[in-house]
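Late entry, evening session. Most of the bench is empty. Finally got around to the prediction I had been postponing all week. Sequence below, unchanged from the version circulated by S.P.
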Amino acid sequence: MRRHILLKDKYCSVSSSPVFQMLHLTKGCVGCLLSRRPVLALTNSGARMSSHDHHVVSNNLDMSQPMYSDRLDTPLPDRPWKDVLDSTDKSLKQKEKGPWTALSKEEKITLYRLKFNHTYPEMKRPSHEWKTVIGGMFIFFGITGLVVFWQCHYVYPPQPHTFGEEWQAKQIQRMLDMRINPIEGFSAQWDYKNKQWK
């Protein structure tokens, strides 16, 4: 019921747009192939999102609003790290407006932490993520090796007899006897007088 009211409100807000009027006319021409709900889902993203879940209205991240980010190339973020200040933070902000010589080292650090989450040395500190990546690669290669080993023993047929050394020697001798490619090919590399490779 609540969703239908939400869709009805969305329906009323977009009913004057030309896109909606065009889709509404298309809906009328096609008849029962299109219902009101798909037409509304095509006309308004809010109606589309509200139709996915009955109980939760999804919140989209508005990228036009100021955001906080710790980045080395952007020293001053759009907004401070801590937006909502408690009473001690507010009193410290009032004290900040006075001379900074009256502030202790801990108060200066607290003021810094209100504005920024990490310092430059903390941002430059190397992460140990490479260990996870290397470990994951070794696990992947190990599992792949086990699968290949299993396939070699239990899946693949035995090697054909034509791969044996005796068969290969007979095949080479036959190619030499038949003088295969005598100008620049296989037989051209064989010395027929001395019976050896050139």
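Two things to note before I forget:
Residues 147 and 153 are 10 Å apart (CA to CA).
The chain is about 55% helix and 0% strand.
Will write this up properly tomorrow.
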